[in-house]
């Protein structure tokens, strides 16, 4: 992370960071120096392609690298002639310089198997763009064991930036919770990204399970004991999140502050269980909450009518002792 890079105030345009505002942040002298210094230290002797935000940024980055190590980098952009591009690429392939800084030229269709490091100095929210950029370093070559991805970001603020873990996760998009757990693991020390993905996913699933178990125990079981058998905990029933309609229906039935990761399957089971209770004429969760709040804790088998009568008595007693008071279940 580069301290001088602050993306909080960069707006989103067409699903990605606004290019002009991003360029202003990344072209700041402190940001350019920070990226160049870290890149020079971390890339070692690896043949590197660096992705910049715009033309000025590509050249500024190359200049800063050359201050660190003369002759280390060259910049190329869309304004270069065909002959100039060919000559630059030929020199890059021959090892005449180490880092090729570019702006949107070699995202697709550029094949240089010797590239063993990809430096991303162009933060993005686009998974497709990120995958294309790191793809420039994933070609196999004799003596090449791996590809180092250097991801230069700073404080992302409200933005959810794409990182290596998003690409390594394959077709499964990482949730915000899993990404946050992965970022925490990676920030804590050196760990294999794939291992971090697996561990973080397991941690979040367990946290989701415990959250729903806890919610069921605190919001349902104490008031409606027989619902425990009707609403088994099974997070694998459905990986999709509960729909807006399901959440509203549960809230209308008296379940407030629902778990954020409640699945469609769990929501469906809860709704079915509550409907079964209603069909048997048992008291509602709203009635249960009022009764518990007023000391009635042993009411598991009350009918809706009996619960209503108890509440009516409580309201009558309250109105007698506190005129003008108003209580409703």
Task: Summarize the SSE layout with pairings.
Layout: E1 12-13, E2 16-17, H1 19-26, H2 29-43, E3 48-51, H3 55-68, E4 73-76, H4 82-94, E5 99-102, E6 117-120, H5 127-135, E7 148-151, H6 164-168, H7 176-188, H8 193-220, H9 227-230, H10 244-252, H11 264-279, H12 285-293, H13 304-321
Parallel strand pairs: 3-5, 3-6, 4-5, 6-7
Antiparallel strand pairs: 1-2
Radius of gyration, taken over Cα atoms and rounded to an integer in Å: 29 Å
Reported CATH architecture of one domain: 3-Layer(aba) Sandwich
Q: How many DSSP helices? A: 13
Element string (H = helix, E = strand): EEHHEHEHEEHEHHHHHHHH
How far apart are the first and last residues' alpha carbons, in Å? 53 Å
The third-level CATH topology of one domain is Rossmann fold
- Low-confidence parts: 319-329
| Structure summary, number of beta strands | 7
**Strand sequence of the main sheet, in spatial order?**
4-5-3-6-7
- Mean pLDDT comes to 78
Structural class call reads alpha/beta
Proportion of helical residues: 40-55%
CATH homologous superfamily name of one domain? P-loop containing nucleotide triphosphate hydrolases
Shape, per Cα inertia axes? elongated
Biggest β-sheet description:
5 strands, parallel
**Tell me, what is the CATH class of one domain?**
Alpha Beta
What is the strand content?
Answer: 5-15%
């Amino acid at each position: 992370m580069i301290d001088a890079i602050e993306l909080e105030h960069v707006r989103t345009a067409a699903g990605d960071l606004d290019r002009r505002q991003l360029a202003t942040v990344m072209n700041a002298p402190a940001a350019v120096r920070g990226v160049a210094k870290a890149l020079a230290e971390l890339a070692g002797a690896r043949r590197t392609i660096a992705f910049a935000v715009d033309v000025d940024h590509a050249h500024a980055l190359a200049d800063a690298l050359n201050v660190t190590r003369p002759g280390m980098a060259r910049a190329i952009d869309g304004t270069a002639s065909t002959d100039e591009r060919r000559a630059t690429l030929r020199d890059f392939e021959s090892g005449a310089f180490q880092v090729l800084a570019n702006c949107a030229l070699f995202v697709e269709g550029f094949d240089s198997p010797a590239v063993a490091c990809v430096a991303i100095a162009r933060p993005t929210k686009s998974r497709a763009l990120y995958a294309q950029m790191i793809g420039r370093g994933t070609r196999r070559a004799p003596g090449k064991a791996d590809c180092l991805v250097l991801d230069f970001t700073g404080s992302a603020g409200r933005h959810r930036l794409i990182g290596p873990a998003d690409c390594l996760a394959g077709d499964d998009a990482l949730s915000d919770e899993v990404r946050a757990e992965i970022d925490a693991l990676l920030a804590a020390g050196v760990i294999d990204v794939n291992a971090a993905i697996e561990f973080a996913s397991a941690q979040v699933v367990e946290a989701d399970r415990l959250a729903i178990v806890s919610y069921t125990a605190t919001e349902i079981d104490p008031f409606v004991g027989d619902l425990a058998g009707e609403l088994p905990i099974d997070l694998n029933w459905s990986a999709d999140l509960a729909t807006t309609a399901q959440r509203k229906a549960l809230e209308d039935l008296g379940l407030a502050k629902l778990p954020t990761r409640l699945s469609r399957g769990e929501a469906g089971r809860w709704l079915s269980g509550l409907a079964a209770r209603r069909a048997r004429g048992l008291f509602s969760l709203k009635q249960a909450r009022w009764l518990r709040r007023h000391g009635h804790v042993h009411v598991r088998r009350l009918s809706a009518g009996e619960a209503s009568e108890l509440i009516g008595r409580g309201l009558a007693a309250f109105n007698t002792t506190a005129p003008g008071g108003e209580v409703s279940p």
